[in-house]
Amino acid sequence: MPRYNPPVRDTRFILDRVLKIDNYADLPGFANATPDTVTAVLEEGGRFVAEVLFPINHSGDQQGCTRHPDGSVTTPDGFKEAYQQFVESGWGTLSAPEQFGGQAMPHVVSTAFQEYMISANMAFAMYPGLTHGAIEALLAKGSPEQQEKYVPKMVSGEWGGTMNLTEPHCGTDLGLIKTRATPNADGSWSITGTKIFISSGEHDLTSNIIHLVLAKTPGAPESSKGISLFVVPKFMVNDDGTLGTRNAVTCGSIEHKMGIHANSTCVMNYDGATGWLVGEEMKGLAAMFIMMNAARLGVGLQGLGIGEVAYQNAVQYAHDRRQGRALTGAAEPEEKADTLFVHPDVRRMLMEAKAMTEGLRALCLWGGLQVDLSHKAASEEERQLADDLIGLLTPVIKGVGTDAGYRIATDSQQVYGGHGYIAEWGMEQYVRDARIAMIYEGTNGVQAMDLVGRKLAQNGGRAVQTLFRIVTEEVAAAKAEPELTHLAEALEKANGQLQAATMWFMANGMKDPNQVGAGAYSYMELMGTVAIGLMWLRMADAAVAALAEGDDEAEGGRAFYEAKLVTARFYADRIMPNAGALRRKIESGAETIMALPVEAFGV
Amino acid sequence: MPRYNPPVRDTRFILDRVLKIDNYADLPGFANATPDTVTAVLEEGGRFVAEVLFPINHSGDQQGCTRHPDGSVTTPDGFKEAYQQFVESGWGTLSAPEQFGGQAMPHVVSTAFQEYMISANMAFAMYPGLTHGAIEALLAKGSPEQQEKYVPKMVSGEWGGTMNLTEPHCGTDLGLIKTRATPNADGSWSITGTKIFISSGEHDLTSNIIHLVLAKTPGAPESSKGISLFVVPKFMVNDDGTLGTRNAVTCGSIEHKMGIHANSTCVMNYDGATGWLVGEEMKGLAAMFIMMNAARLGVGLQGLGIGEVAYQNAVQYAHDRRQGRALTGAAEPEEKADTLFVHPDVRRMLMEAKAMTEGLRALCLWGGLQVDLSHKAASEEERQLADDLIGLLTPVIKGVGTDAGYRIATDSQQVYGGHGYIAEWGMEQYVRDARIAMIYEGTNGVQAMDLVGRKLAQNGGRAVQTLFRIVTEEVAAAKAEPELTHLAEALEKANGQLQAATMWFMANGMKDPNQVGAGAYSYMELMGTVAIGLMWLRMADAAVAALAEGDDEAEGGRAFYEAKLVTARFYADRIMPNAGALRRKIESGAETIMALPVEAFGV
């Protein structure tokens, strides 16, 4: 059976020495995030997920959710009790506003906790995860009455939340949705239609579920411009906050999926269900994008979370399993065989996993901080900068993070050899769970198109120019430090490839947008290589500083920082060479991709 | 539900115009492979697998195998009947020797049929697949009496066969096996021990199962040099060929696996089972390697087979599903949305799948032909050449082929968006099934070590020098043809990267073998890029010739060949750029991979 040890030491390193969150102590909420508080959150939160959520991860996968003939859904054994503990200990309230019962901690801190929760039990983490998305939308677009009515009990975890976008015939192309909303006399709306792939759509963890639903109002145009957002509670909520009658929204069936078996993925039937408009009519998509952007960062974090736990177990197995001898001669002649750790190709997989998980952790926490700064930074200029950067890199974190999570899970399974393929060892679950993150909240191909088709060009390319400038400046500063020169040069080169590819898009995309579409995915990967490279440069820089200070007090001592420097070099040597190949693929253009008629594919 | 259409047109193109098997008509067996016979085999064989095996693929996955309290195992509904039809129509006898009831067809032809069988139902195909491996070992090392006793009924399919290598504590490192064989007075041996991960170890398809088992004889050294091979029938075979008493070999349990649910993966308990030595005592590993090399090519073919069927379904879905609009404006304004085919990033995935499956098909069939030539070519020189090349490229076909199969299955699933994650659509099964091929018959990391640690250096590097020479000569010849120049130049460059990496290994490996081990996987990928690139050069060359001849009679007409030329350019533009990155990774050496102490990984 797998194990999980929350990487508190690494999180602390990133928060304290890379992001230096104490620099922001005078911003709202950051005062709550003193080093002691953050340490307590990470350690106690880590203990909670490891002790309560992790033990029901594998059993939850094996048992799955069950829909009953009356449409109710029960989660696997132990989930209800664990959720109760989750609510009671307040883990869902970390970064919610104080006025609605939250702890008002910075987003960057709750991001750190979410990673741990995903590692411990991704299917479980999705229940509060969806609730948070719904809270975000209500806070952004809901009326004060709606906020007061729904948000406090969603923050506490007493009620759950969902996002209802997809329908059988449309996922990405939401302009095609058929769900209809017709106005009632009392100001409410009557919602009718079928939604599919609704995560956490029905379950037994909460006493009510607040659905946020996209629908079209009478006369709305047949495009994404005609979409409105509604709040539809499973149980009507009386004015005194008690639950009223059951609304006409039911779970028609649950899906049998490749993974995340313990999260109920529902077909939701709205049969004249009562709902209320959230925000303005026909402005629903913008509201939904608020949820979606937050959700996409959360999905990127799923790549990290699954990658981390899979990697930890591969390390343990490589340490325990003896097979073969070191190429340089027996490392432990007194044993019948050496451990897997002596084999360079096993280490290659472990080092790739280490470099990518630690790099992604830095990138995800950096992203969490940008979310904070985009709302809370002191100057408009700083808020703008943070908003630009997180807007640009959200699709990269989602796309590159989840691709990496799947690859790390696959490689970690590979370390186990045949045992990795057997269910009881638990590794194949990580691969199956990681797989969905590349698909939902917009497939990774959709992320790539969001990046090149929307984010790149916004405000005249301001965001990407900012990224280039930051990388260039930090590379220039780092080159002077001998320990950083190698990585700085590799990053400079990759940044050059990214700039060249950007120029190529500008030169060719106006004439033929397919030239950009054909290179979009490689471009996303290239920007991810640069962004994670930047994180490694910052981590290496922080490690050099810590070593110079003689910081050997914390867990791991000097060896922790020395390992960072080795891993940074590994990233430069073994990951960054991809940048040149990606640029060449992009610059080969659309011709061979678009040339063939459909018949040539055999349809 | 998925569909499957055997790619007969493409197979014929490769056999007829790329490999030109009619050039070999005077070699033993090839006279049986007239164009008409081969066409009949491909079309009828393709129809058989599509109509009989494919319909029980998804149901077989859902139902899986069942072990009963008495140790017997039943396969999923329909498997027994399908197997009966398989035996009756003689599909298992294609390339077996005539003296044992086979049709003595060339291996290259049965390879083509095996691809189809895997695409239709990989779990099913493993039953006769393992039998063939056992036949190979008996034909190579068994006594004439053993061959006469077992082989005819294994060829006919009346009996099955298995390979028993792995034990709970050892897979790759077979020197550690504990299964013991002690001699009986009558010349037989008594076998005791536990074997795990035994594919097709127990089932209800055949009346007898012939196990080939590795065990150690008394006094054998504690290394792979002390291993002997035994034949252990499930039921003893009387002198008249009838079945006698049940042998003391039983299935202790079956594994619950990520995929290939319809193939029984057994723990086999040998409790003083009666067996007979195959070949010489303590020479068992060499005998097993005969099975294993054939099996590795068969596993590479699994990568191709699953990749092909997954790709076909992704194409169909991209054709059927309407979502969004072409970047260049609505392609079908009268419809509410365009098909997925208009989106460059969807096409990117489909083109990658097309380029890799067609390239792998050429490589696998080329490999099948080398197996034929290594036995049957007229001169010792030609046999040697074929043996060198297939020895070198067997780990590449296995490693690169199965990595590609998994990637193609994953990308094809991705084309389906959310539906790809749902079991009933059938795409997630392909990912789960494809995954095992990267692990068994030696993990792909073991393949990489076989390539760089054994195959490269054999006979003073003769095989790899031969490969370099062939690529160089064909590139030089192709450059003169305008349609081929682009690919030829890309291949020349990649071949240069491969040569440089080989030189780097030679210069650095003697001092420190970890320098080679650290680059082994990238080297395998690089050689695969070159080998498949060579196949694309040959296919493009054949397409140019066919177009010049005005060949527009066969299915697809000129468009078939024109698509080959586009796909060849795609391969040059979008796959070959990886070669430079792979070389750079190799030449970065072992330092960052081997530097960290185990503690730095958190154990």
Automatic annotation (TrEMBL), chains A, B:
GO molecular function, one term: flavin adenine dinucleotide binding
Pfam families per UniProt: Acyl-CoA_dh_1, Acyl-CoA_dh_C, Acyl-CoA_dh_M, Acyl-CoA_dh_N
Cofactor: FAD
Gene3D superfamilies, sorted: Acyl-CoA dehydrogenase/oxidase, N-terminal domain, Butyryl-CoA Dehydrogenase, subunit A, domain 2, Butyryl-CoA Dehydrogenase, subunit A, domain 3
KW Ligase (keyword) present: no
Start and end residues of each Acyl-CoA oxidase/dehydrogenase middle domain: 163-271
Alphabetic keyword roster: FAD, Flavoprotein, Oxidoreductase
Enzyme Commission number(s) from the entry: 1.3.99.41
Domain of life: Bacteria
InterPro entries on file: Acyl-CoA_dh-like_C_dom, Acyl-CoA_Oxase/DH_mid-dom, Acyl-CoA_Oxase/DH_mid-dom_sf, AcylCo_DH-like_C, AcylCo_DH/oxidase_C, AcylCoA_DH/ox_N, AcylCoA_DH/ox_N_sf, AcylCoA_DH/oxidase_NM_dom_sf
Domain (Acetyl-CoA dehydrogenase-like C-terminal): residue spans on this chain: 473-597
Function: Involved in the assimilation of dimethylsulphoniopropionate (DMSP), an important compound in the fixation of carbon in marine phytoplankton, by mediating the conversion of 3-(methylthio)propanoyl-CoA (MMPA-CoA) to 3-(methylthio)acryloyl-CoA (MTA-CoA).
Protein name: 3-methylmercaptopropionyl-CoA dehydrogenase
Organism: Sphingomonas suaedae
Lineage per the UniProt record: Bacteria, Pseudomonadati, Pseudomonadota, Alphaproteobacteria, Sphingomonadales
